[in-house]
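PROTEIN DATA CARD
Card holder: ATP-dependent RNA helicase
Chain length: 705
Origin: Dimargaris cristalligena
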Amino acid sequence: MPDSKSTTIASFGDLGLDSDIRIHLDTKMDIREPTRIQRKGIPALLQDSYQPGSGPKIPRDVFLQAETGSGKTLTYLLPIIHRLIVASTRPESTNSGNHTKGSGGPSRALGTFAIIMAPTRELAKQIFSTLEALLNMKLTRGQRFHWIVPGIVNGGENKSSEKNRLRKGATVLVSTPGRLLDHLQNTQSFKVEHLKWLVLDEADRLLELGFEETLKKTLAILDERKGGRRNDKNAGAWDLSTVGCDYFLRSPALPRSRITVLCSATLPTQVRRLAGATLSNPKTTPGGSDSDSNNDNDDDDSDDEPRYTAPSQLKQSYIEVPAKQRLVALTAPDGDATVPLIDDRKPPPCNKVIIFVSSCDSVDFHHALLSRAPSVRKTTEAQASTTNQGEHEEDGDEEEADDDADDNENTTPVEPVALVKKNSARYNLAESSLLLPGVHIYRLHGNLPQAIRTDTFFRFSQSKAPAVLVCTDVAARGLDLPNVQRIIQFDPPTEVADYVHRIGRTARIGRQGEALLFLLPSEMEYLKILKQQGLSPIATTLDQQLRILAQRRRRGREIEVAATDLQMACERWVAGPAQAAYLSSVRAYATHPSKEKHIFHVKQLHLGHMAKAFALQGRPTAVGSQGSKAHAQGKAPPQLSQSKKAHARQRDQQGGEGHETGRPVNKPAQKKMTNPFKRGVINTDEFSSGDITALKGPKSKKRRA
Ligand SMILES: Nc1ncnc2c1ncn2[C@@H]1O[C@H](COP(=O)(O)OP(=O)(O)OP(=O)(O)O)[C@@H](O)[C@H]1O
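Structure generated from the sequence above:
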C-alpha cells in the first residue's frame, strides 16, 4: 500500500505523468497511489538535474535505493515511457513542414533508447512483463506510440531470433548482462547510438554474481558508440531511420545524454563502489520505508556501515532449533498461533510460502520430502475407517505405530500437478503434498533447465491453491511473486543482504507478511550480526511451534507424539523401501525353522553385502547392531511366535529394535528415535524443550497384524 501519510503528492497525476499512463495504471493495473520511492524517484527521473559547472549541461545519474517490494521497477519505467511519449508528440511548429510529409515520426528502427539490465533471467522476464503491461495502454489523444517496442535479450534464449528482433529495433530493451555484452560485441544491427537510459536493476546482485567486468566493458562500448559506431562502414551515410525525427531526437523531453540509473534495495560497500565507477555525480533518492517518515532527505551520501531496512509491516522472527528437530519444526507453525507453515484456514490466494535452503540438492530433497513423505494424519484416518473401532486417540499409539509402518504402502501415489513439455516430463513442476494435504510443492534452483525455471516461476505466481516454493537464492532477488504470506529461511543466508532480499519476497507494497529464520543453537550469535545491520527478528520457540503442530495434526494429542509421528513418517519415507526391505529380509531369514538353520542362518549372511543388495551404502544401524551382535555370537535372532513374526516385520520397517525381545538396548539415543513402540516416552527427549510435561508411555494392548 502506498504511503498514506503523504498529503502533498497523492496520485501519479501529481507527479506529472502523462494522463494516458495514469489512466492505464488505474484501470488496467490497479495502481493508484505512488509509493514513497515513486514519489521521490519519478520526479527525479522526469526532470533531469544537471551536473554543476559552466560547461555543457550533463544530466546527473540517479541512484534509487529503497527497500524490497517498494515499487522500484515502475519508478524507472514510468518516466522512461512518459518521456518517450512526450518527445514523440510533434510540436505544432514542425507541422508546417520542417520534415518530409508522410514521414511518420520516430520508429523502432531508431534503435534502443533504454536498456534495463537485470542480474537473473527470471528477473529480466518479470521486468519485461511489467514493461509489456505498461505499453499495452490505450491512448485517448490520438498520439501513436506503437513505435515504442519492448524487447528482451536473455541468457539461455535463442540468440539468432534475438538478433532478428534487435535488427528490427527494440526501443526499451531488458537484458541480462552477459547476453547484452554479447550482442553489443557481435550484433552489428544493434543500434545504441541514441541510448538515453541505462538502468542497472538489483545492482548489488549484479556485483555479487561477478558482473563487474561485464559492466565495465558494456559501459565502454556504450560510451564509444554515443555518436554512432566509429568504424561503421555506413558512418557518415544518411541514416534513413532518422528522417523526420529531428524534432523527436532533439526534444527537451529526452535527456541530453545518457542517464545511468542504479537500483538497489541494499547499499553495501560494493554498490557504492559501483555507483562511484558508473554514475556521474549521482542524485541519490533513498526511498526508505513507506512508513518511515524520518527518511525524507535526498542525497543521502552517508558513509556509515551499511544498514538494512525491511518493510516495517513485515513480522520477522527466528527460531532456535537443534538439528534433530529441524524437520518437524519446518512443517510446524511459528509462535503466532493463527499461522501454520501453510495456513489452510486462510482463503486463497494469500497462502504461499517460500522456503530458502542453501543448495540445489537440499532443494531437491526438501521438495521431494514435502511432496511425498506420507501424512501421519492420513494413516490415522485410514486406520479408523478400517478398524471401525472408534478408538480413543490416547489408546491408539501402538496401532498407529503398526499402521504407520504400512503407510508407505497405503499412500496414494503423488499426482503430478503439471508436467512440463514432453521431453522433460521428469520435472514435475509441482506436486500435491502428502505431508501437507491440499498444498502444492514447487522447487526452483539454478541446476534446473531454464524452461522449467520459467514455468515454475509462472505457475507458482499464478497458483490459486496453497503453495510452497522450496528454492535457493536464485529466487531471492527482485522476484515479485504475488501473495507470498511467509518466508522461511531454513538455512541462514551467506550474506546479510540476502537476508533482506529473501524476506523481501513477502510484505510487498505495504501488505502484511512474515519471515521466520531457523538457527541452530550454535548459530545464535548470528542475531548479533543481524542486529548490527539494523535487523532484529524476535524469538519464537519450538514449543510454540510444536504445540500448534499438535493442535493441527492430532487434535488433543500430546505435542511430542505428534512431532515424533511426523519425524518418523519422514524418516520412513527417506529410508524408504530399501531399508525396510533390507530389515524385513534379514528378519525373515531368522524365521526359517530350526531344521533348515544349517542352510539359512543369519550367521552366514554378510550384512554389509546384504545392504548393498538393497542399494544401501551401509548396513542400517538399528538392525545391524542387533543382527551383527547375533552374528558375532553365532546366534540367530531369537525365534518369534508366528503372531510376533508378523508384527516384527512391521516393526522392522521402522528400523526399531524389538523391545519385546527383552534384549538390552545398546544405544539408547538411537533406540529413542527408532523404536516406534516407545515413542511416547522417547518423545520427551527428542521433541520436548522443557516446559512440556513428560508423556505417558504407550497404553495399548493388542496390535493388528
Ligand atoms: N504504487 C503502487 N501501488 C500498488 N502496487 C504497486 C505500486 N507500484 C508497484 N506496485 C506493484 O508492487 C509489486 C512490487 O514492485 P517491484 O517489483 O517494482 O518492487 P521492487 O522495489 O523492485 O522490489 P525488489 O527490491 O524486491 O526487487 C509489483 O507487483 C508492482 O506491480
